[in-house]
Design brief:
Length: about 160
């Protein structure tokens, strides 16, 4: 049985199937053979990735909103992927450890774990003068405040 199915473009893909396999014949004569189970798993994976991206974006919006609430204490925030976890680094305005900010960030971290399904997240605060020791600004996501370049400039002037 062959059925044309439309893509976003004007190209047509022909689908042939039996009880055990599905053959997709593309417009460029590419042929893909998959079982129904493989196709379902691929669709579920795509849905899972879309859901994760949505959760991730919602998490970033939450973090940005929280940063705005205590902007006097946070100069910037960056998200750095570290292996299987996401590290949120809050660069504090205080030159020494800010215990009040630590309490607030603990609440943020608890909310991240309970509300957003993005995997393991860790929260860290670092002083402005030490930012370049804890963050490689290449490949980070800028969430709030000053950009990474401003801290790299500060480090090179020291």
């Amino acid at each position: 049985m062959s059925q044309p199915t439309g893509r976003k473009s004007s190209e047509t893909v022909h689908v042939q199937h039996t009880d055990e396999s599905v053959m997709l014949h593309g417009p460029q004569d590419d042929i893909i053979m998959r079982t129904g189970k493989q196709i379902i798993e691929a669709c579920e994976l795509r849905t899972s990735l879309d859901l994760w991206r949505h959760e991730f974006n919602d998490m970033l919006e939450f973090v940005k909103t929280e940063c705005q609430k205590f902007a006097r204490q946070v100069d910037a925030c960056f998200l750095s992927p570290r292996g299987a976890k996401l590290l949120l680094v809050f660069i504090q305005t205080s030159p020494s450890f800010d215990f009040d900010l630590a309490d607030k960030l603990t609440e943020v971290e608890i909310t991240l774990q309970n509300k957003f399904n993005v995997g393991f997240t860790e929260v860290m605060q670092v002083p402005i003068s030490e930012a370049d020791r804890f963050i490689n600004f290449n490949g980070v996501v800028h969430v709030f405040g000053k950009s990474g370049e401003s801290y790299q400039t500060n480090a090179s002037q020291s």
